[in-house]
Structure prediction request, 514 residues.
Amino acid sequence: MKKKPLILVTNDDGITAGGIRNLIDVASEFGDVWVVAPDSPQSGMGHAITIHNILRLQEVKDVPGITEISCSGTPVDCVKLAIYRVLKRKPDLLLSGINHGANYSINVLYSGTMSAAVEGAMEGIPSIGFSLLDHSLNADFSASREVARRIIGNALTDGIPKHTCLNVNIPNVPENELKGVRICRQARASWEDDFQPRKDPSGKIYYWITGKFVNRDQGEDTDVWALENNYVSVVPVQYDLTSHRDIPALTKWNYEA
Amino acid sequence: MKKKPLILVTNDDGITAGGIRNLIDVASEFGDVWVVAPDSPQSGMGHAITIHNILRLQEVKDVPGITEISCSGTPVDCVKLAIYRVLKRKPDLLLSGINHGANYSINVLYSGTMSAAVEGAMEGIPSIGFSLLDHSLNADFSASREVARRIIGNALTDGIPKHTCLNVNIPNVPENELKGVRICRQARASWEDDFQPRKDPSGKIYYWITGKFVNRDQGEDTDVWALENNYVSVVPVQYDLTSHRDIPALTKWNYEA
Prediction:
């Protein structure tokens, strides 16, 4: 008999968020689930790790097939602690999310959800990050559950290319309006940030970050295009940041002392 | 008469660190310097931004040619605040560092120093991150100053490819032992993490992250090779994480509802 897959689940919204509760449900249909997820919201933490402070783990649930542990650190801390401290063997699959809010295009860099998946890929674990385009705490994850079920099934059947994880974004529409699934590239876009100044009770100024996402990429093979057209976008994500095509031109800077 | 370049300087070790003091000195030889840097150490913060908390700015110095502002946020927060709140126009150059410690290979993902440079590239600003392979607070930056001077000169003369920044790592050897400068690719390597368990005064366990960097990449065109051979490594870094080569194989997952 084939051994049940060992599935590690994490997120960046915190272990009590609706998105991870739904993902744990779906994951438990496929294998034994271990959850190591932040004890507090960690959105926007990117690939941060905790090196100047201590880390805590706290078991919060242990029922047959599902063990849940909360962690004081970032999403990437959670993955590292899970692999090197909590689990007896490397997981067969890492699932991150389902994030409350979009992580398409360059947002992959800011996203704790996706950085957890990237960390999984760096560890050689097939890893998938899921995000629903709805920030609200009470987001409806019913369509997302179906999408996660399909993609997890694909991943367990076909595998995921080595050194790669998947960035799955799901349009915020009812399931019957989903047009399908598209493999995409990350759209070339940017943020036009704005900082709202406010005064604290003592009159000192502080700021809140806000911003506008600006997509100038007209390609129909991008994640932004897919999502605008009610498709689920799936971007294969890798972590070699080298701009290989720029190396030849820059070699004129090479210098021998 | 040509206008003096406007140079934004930041780092992740904090505005008082020796590395950034040396970088400010060198930068001021080339143009008008604006410093927006963290008010506390932010190593390992990667591309984190502060969205669940407020941000503060505090001017700490304003002399002709050098204005310094400390920021309560991450290195990427510093860059965003500098561009969208502090500076009157986009800077001509962004310099980050000089980091106390290495940022080669996959460490580019964890590094606040390099994430600040990547954020600069996302904003279309020629950006360079500098790191010295010496973690100590009292590191000797004299060779690094020469390296920074050379690379900044190159960048202002030739420019930096669009959507790209540079990851410059400097071996921890005296200047006369530096063998030169090499344009490189990011080595394929990984971390084998370890978490040291300790007990707090009440007997509860906590952890400190530690780990071993493992390079399995034998290429002589990598940053790790260059540094091991006393060359300064320069990796052009971009932020499209799409694994383009994996798209064709995955398109069998495409699905029309």
Q: What stands out?
A: The first strand of chain A starts at residue 6 and ends at 10. Residues 6-186+231-242 of chain A form a domain with the Stationary-phase Survival Protein Sure Homolog; Chain: A, fold (CATH 3.40.1210.10). Chain A has seven helices and twelve strands.
